[in-house]
Write a structure and sequence with these properties.
By secondary structure, the protein is an all-alpha fold. The chain contains 19 helices and no strands. Helix 8 packs antiparallel against helix 14. The protein is globular, with a radius of gyration of 21 Å.
């Protein structure tokens, strides 16, 4: 009976995905018009975008808003424009080659280089998972008063449940992640309303590049440098590589154009959430002369100033962001192992193994916010090793065919890469000193 159930489930998943691909090819053949033509291509970027609203960003954005008000909103706006380009390159690589970034690197680089890239990417993903795991556990602690260790165990169980969606097919996973992102968006939309910000100042902060002393420069570097997540780059190429396969160069170009809309929408939402964090912090904390760097302090201050519902929505956003992004981190770990060294372990076993470092950190009694910040430092080391190969490969006509980068795209890619890598190195040095 059990075997029959599994077989029926597998058949159902295959049927759903075949139906989806059939809908996508109807679009490519010109048989579907209007907004309906976007639906088969929406999803991959929303999974990748979860990395841009992970708990590591919460600490940076709350600090920025409480210290400098709306001053640094322009940094988030600029960061998301960069993210659109970078994620589009990753998606395009998968569409053009049918392979993900680690697989292409494995094919093009010597074996020793591939092993090194795998090791560093695993370390980066462990740091990512640490931030996301602790963030979700902290959300449970703030919302329900559950001690951090039991909260971490509950977080692990929740992340296993989300991974179960992947077994049911990529459309089920995309729908589940999109629903969680929607919860985060609604939570912060409510907080923005409660904060009653000065929208004129918000608009000026978004489009006026300026600083207020050395500390604001350092914080801006932290926001910009931590925006591009290496695991999101690896993962996005895997999400597009076999999802909808173009039968010729013209179809691949059309697929990329439609997937680019997915990327713009997803990055727009991620950017709006990050801006909302700063706006809420500015409207409730900065306005009242409060400088807050710890998320638990921010939670209690939001409750004191704007009422318990505002605090609850903040805690809920932190919890859901942590849960969704922790599962995405596990998926990225599977991609880099399979790609760089052609090995794979059970996804649930990987999830179990990656719960060990966060649990150890929580048991040690380290301040959760400090742990989130330090995880961003580790992440900084991995950005160059994802960005540079991505630009090299997408600029190579032999690899990309008709989807090879335009010269302007390549130039912008190298400029962004140099800026992001430099800022991350600068940030690491400052934190270590």
């Amino acid at each position: 009976m059990m075997e029959q159930s599994v077989a029926q489930q597998t058949t159902q998943v295959t049927t759903n995905e075949l139906d989806h691909r059939s809908s996508a090819h109807a679009v490519l053949d010109g048989r579907t018009k209007g907004l309906k033509r976007l639906l088969p291509f929406l999803g991959p970027a929303f999974i990748a975008a979860v990395a841009y609203i992970d708990p590591g960003n919460f600490a940076t954005n709350i600090t920025a808003g409480s210290k400098y008000g709306y001053l640094l909103l322009w940094v988030i706006f600029a960061s998301n424009l960069m993210a659109v380009l970078i994620q589009s390159l990753s998606a395009k690589l998968g569409i053009a080659t049918g392979r993900n970034l680690p697989e292409v690197a494995h094919d093009r680089f010597p074996k020793g280089v591939s092993i090194f890239l795998w090791i560093q990417s695993e370390l980066v993903i462990i740091a990512t998972d640490l931030a996301e795991f602790i963030g979700a556990a902290l959300g449970l602690y703030l919302l329900f008063g559950i001690p951090m260790l039991p909260a971490a165990v509950i977080t692990a169980i929740g992340s296993f449940a989300i991974l179960e969606l992947q077994r049911r097919g990529y459309r089920a996973l995309e729908a589940g992640i999109a629903a969680m992102v929607l919860i985060v968006v609604l939570a912060f939309a409510f907080q923005v309303i409660a904060a009653n910000p000065d929208f004129g100042a918000v608009g000026a902060g978004m489009v006026t590049p300026r600083f207020d002393g050395v500390d604001s420069v350092l914080l801006a570097a932290g926001i910009l440098g931590a925006t591009v997540m290496p695991h999101a780059i690896y993962l996005h190429s895997s999400l597009t590589q076999n999802r909808i396969v173009g039968r010729n160069e013209a179809e691949k170009k059309k697929i990329f154009k439609l997937e680019f809309i997915d990327i713009v929408l997803a990055m727009l939402i991620a950017g709006a959430v990050n801006m909302a964090m700063v706006v809420v912090s500015a409207g409730l904390l900065f306005k009242n002369g409060l400088v807050v760097e710890d998320l638990d302090v921010a939670f209690h201050q939001f409750g004191t100033i704007a009422g318990p519902v505002t605090a609850i929505s903040f805690g809920l956003g932190l919890l859901i962001a942590g849960l969704s992004s922790s599962s995405v981190g596990t998926m990225a770990g599977d991609v880099v192992m399979q790609g760089f060294i052609n090995k794979r372990i059970n996804l649930y076993l990987r999830r179990a193994i990656t719960t060990i470092p966060p649990l150890a950190i929580i048991i040690s009694g380290v301040n959760p916010t400090n742990a989130l910040v330090m995880s961003q430092v580790v992440l900084s080391f991995g950005i160059a090793f994802a960005l540079i190969p991505l630009i090299l490969f997408t600029s190579n006509r032999k690899i990309m065919g008709g989807l090879v980068n335009h010269r302007v795209t390549t130039t912008l890619g190298w400029m962004i890469s140099a800026l992001v890598v430099s800022l991350n190195l600068f940030l690491v040095v400052q934190m270590l000193l």
